[in-house]
């Protein structure tokens, strides 16, 4: 019986261009996510000159900004960062749900990793916990996921027609 082959990404071959698209709304939380993402990328060898940061008004606007960046910049990966905090109206569900759905569609459409670091939380306290205190930094985690996916996508590339025979 043939062993099952395994393929996974690493954090070694992660060089390339990264775009971080940031929702400014709740910037007091989101700024920490950006710092975590940039720190993670540079610690793993991504040159700061290859990191673009694009600011959108909020999580609702992230997908359109990401779509345009995917077309114009053609990065190795995009990291979406923002914070949607539940309030007293159904606005939270609409913004969070549509943002998440659109991010998923974009990565499939462009075959480019779009790491989701958009916090969807019930309170400002939960947001602060996920931006670098008790619950870690979700910006860091999103950057790590983006790099791992870049590496994995490279390993899963089909051989070019010149390699076949």
Automatic annotation (TrEMBL):
<keyword id="KW-0808">Transferase</keyword>
<dbReference type="GO" id="GO:0000906">
    <property type="term" value="F:6,7-dimethyl-8-ribityllumazine synthase activity"/>
</dbReference>
<comment type="similarity">
    <text>Belongs to the DMRL synthase family.</text>
</comment>
<dbReference type="GO" id="GO:0005829">
    <property type="term" value="C:cytosol"/>
</dbReference>
<keyword id="KW-0686">Riboflavin biosynthesis</keyword>
<feature type="binding site">
    <location>
        <begin position="88"/>
        <end position="89"/>
    </location>
    <ligand>
        <name>(2S)-2-hydroxy-3-oxobutyl phosphate</name>
    </ligand>
</feature>
<protein>
    <recommendedName>
        <fullName>6,7-dimethyl-8-ribityllumazine synthase</fullName>
        <ecNumber>2.5.1.78</ecNumber>
    </recommendedName>
</protein>
<feature type="binding site">
    <location>
        <begin position="59"/>
        <end position="61"/>
    </location>
    <ligand>
        <name>5-amino-6-(D-ribitylamino)uracil</name>
    </ligand>
</feature>
<dbReference type="Pfam" id="PF00885">
    <property type="entry name" value="DMRL_synthase"/>
</dbReference>
<feature type="binding site">
    <location>
        <position position="25"/>
    </location>
    <ligand>
        <name>5-amino-6-(D-ribitylamino)uracil</name>
    </ligand>
</feature>
<feature type="binding site">
    <location>
        <position position="116"/>
    </location>
    <ligand>
        <name>5-amino-6-(D-ribitylamino)uracil</name>
    </ligand>
</feature>
<feature type="active site" description="Proton donor">
    <location>
        <position position="91"/>
    </location>
</feature>
<comment type="function">
    <text>Catalyzes the formation of 6,7-dimethyl-8-ribityllumazine by condensation of 5-amino-6-(D-ribitylamino)uracil with 3,4-dihydroxy-2-butanone 4-phosphate. This is the penultimate step in the biosynthesis of riboflavin.</text>
</comment>
<comment type="subunit">
    <text>Forms an icosahedral capsid composed of 60 subunits, arranged as a dodecamer of pentamers.</text>
</comment>
<dbReference type="InterPro" id="IPR034964">
    <property type="entry name" value="LS"/>
</dbReference>
<comment type="pathway">
    <text>Cofactor biosynthesis; riboflavin biosynthesis; riboflavin from 2-hydroxy-3-oxobutyl phosphate and 5-amino-6-(D-ribitylamino)uracil: step 1/2.</text>
</comment>
<feature type="binding site">
    <location>
        <begin position="83"/>
        <end position="85"/>
    </location>
    <ligand>
        <name>5-amino-6-(D-ribitylamino)uracil</name>
    </ligand>
</feature>
<dbReference type="InterPro" id="IPR002180">
    <property type="entry name" value="LS/RS"/>
</dbReference>
<dbReference type="GO" id="GO:0009349">
    <property type="term" value="C:riboflavin synthase complex"/>
</dbReference>
<dbReference type="InterPro" id="IPR036467">
    <property type="entry name" value="LS/RS_sf"/>
</dbReference>
<feature type="binding site">
    <location>
        <position position="130"/>
    </location>
    <ligand>
        <name>(2S)-2-hydroxy-3-oxobutyl phosphate</name>
    </ligand>
</feature>
<dbReference type="GO" id="GO:0009231">
    <property type="term" value="P:riboflavin biosynthetic process"/>
</dbReference>
């Amino acid at each position: 019986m043939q062993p099952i082959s395994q393929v996974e990404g690493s954090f070694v071959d992660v060089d390339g261009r990264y775009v971080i698209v940031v929702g400014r709304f709740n910037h007091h939380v989101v700024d920490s996510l950006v710092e975590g993402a940039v720190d993670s990328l540079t610690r793993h060898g991504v040159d700061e000159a290859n990191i673009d940061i694009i600011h959108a008004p909020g999580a609702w606007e992230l997908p359109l900004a990401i779509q345009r960046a995917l077309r114009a910049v053609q990065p190795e990966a995009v990291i979406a960062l923002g914070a949607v905090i539940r309030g007293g109206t159904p606005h939270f569900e609409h913004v969070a749900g549509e943002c998440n759905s659109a991010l998923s569609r974009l990565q499939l459409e462009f075959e480019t990793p779009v790491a989701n670091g958009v916090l969807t939380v019930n309170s400002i306290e939960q947001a602060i916990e996920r931006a670098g205190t008790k619950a870690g930094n979700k910006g860091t985690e999103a950057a790590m996921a983006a790099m791992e996916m870049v590496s994995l996508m490279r390993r899963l590339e089909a051989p070019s027609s010149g390699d076949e025979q």
